[in-house]
Amino acid sequence: MDAVLERLAALEMKVRETLAELEQARRGQAALEAKIQALEADLRAREQEVVTLLAERERDGADLARLRAEREEVRARVEGLLGEIARLEAAMQGVGT
Hints:
With about 100 residues, the chain is mainly α.
């Protein structure tokens, strides 16, 4: 009878150890799940930041193209004015001689 009680006590001890390990595993799992949720939230925030940066980059590209077009337009006007000045100077030299 003592042997049965000893085996029963040993079995009870193993069950308690197993339950303690199970509880520890559950706490570890909960901690990991919380960490995963935090990482997923961080990932979503970073993805939104990338979307925002890409939109800004696209706007900057459009602004750059517009500024380049304006620069070319100004350059063409300046060249036209320089040509007109050259013609006026030639006309003035022709009148002066």
